Amino acid sequence: MQKKTFGSFVELGGRAEMESLTRSGLDYVIIDTEHSCFSEETTADYILAAEAGGMLPYVRIGDIRRPYVLRMLDIGARGLIIPNIRSVEQVRELVSYAKFPPIGNRGFCPSRTSGWGADSWASNVLSYMEECNRRCKVIPQCETKEALACIEEIAALPGVDGIFVGPCDLSIDMGIPLQFDAPALISAIERVLKACQDNGKEAYIYAGSVKDAVKWANRGFDSITYSLDAAVLIQAYQKIVSDFRSGLSGEEQA
Q1: Closest CA to 66 of 46, 88, 95
Q2: Theoretical Cys-Cys bridge with 203: which of 117, 142, 182, 196, CB 3.0 to 4.6 Å?
Q3: Residue 169: closest CA among 189, 152, 139, 153
Q4: Residue 52 sits in which domain range?
């Protein structure tokens, strides 16, 4: 049985944070350049820190234009999470930027991932391109009604390695904001899962609680992305403070 992978979003940033997360047991992190103010230089630094600690660095991109896709891959992103997908054509275009021939038309340039061409695995250009296509995942998000409507076609596209379900935005777009137990949302999520399974693609989903993480893993999702670093930090300190206060005597609390 294939191992279920477990990750989290990084919104706060910082090399020390990334080095700390490599000690957590997480399989991967998603460096969120859509919602956080990370430059390409800082993203590259976080990628290096994650790699050094044996943790996969994925990047959620905020722009699907060709130069941005290329730069994120060239600095070492092992997967691209792509938000706000609304058509099959968008995904086809994205694949053309992110994958080398024969799958796409990614621009060729030696980069840091292969020691700028000095590493032995990059000595043969054909095997180099094949390995880049394998190791650099393209994972569109299903978080809009438009993506859901054509999710079977998206999941079937060559070069798409998986689909990432964003329940928060998907529920909002469906008119049932954050109603995670709504039958319509559950049905939509299960439709995405089936599309992935039917096409041999990885199924990812965001979970805001451990209970939901376990639920979706048990239902067949390959990977769960749990919460985000800021929320985990706040919740951990809230519990510590609460435990401390509750342990004080009445006189010490006054």
Answers
A1: 95
A2: 196
A3: 189
A4: 5-99+136-229
At 52, give phi and psi (nearest 5°). -65, -30
- Number of C-beta neighbours around residue 194 at 10 A: 15
In a domain, 106, yes or no: no
* C-beta of residue 40 within 8 angstroms of C-beta of residue 74: no
Confirm whether pTM is higher than 0.70.
yes
Domain membership flag for residue 111:
no
CA-nearest of 139, 164, 153 to 69 is 139
Q: What distance in Å separates the CA atoms of residue 133 and residue 194, rounded to the nearest whole number? A: 24
**pLDDT attached to residue 253:** 60
The CATH number given to whatever domain includes residue 56 is 3.20.20.60
Strand partners, 58: 30, 79
Strands (E), the chain: 5-10, 28-32, 56-60, 79-82, 137-142, 162-165, 202-207, 223-228
The pLDDT of residue 249: 76
- Give the chain's domain count: 1
pLDDT in tens, 172-217: 999 999 999 999 999 999 999 999 999 999 999 999 999 999 999 9
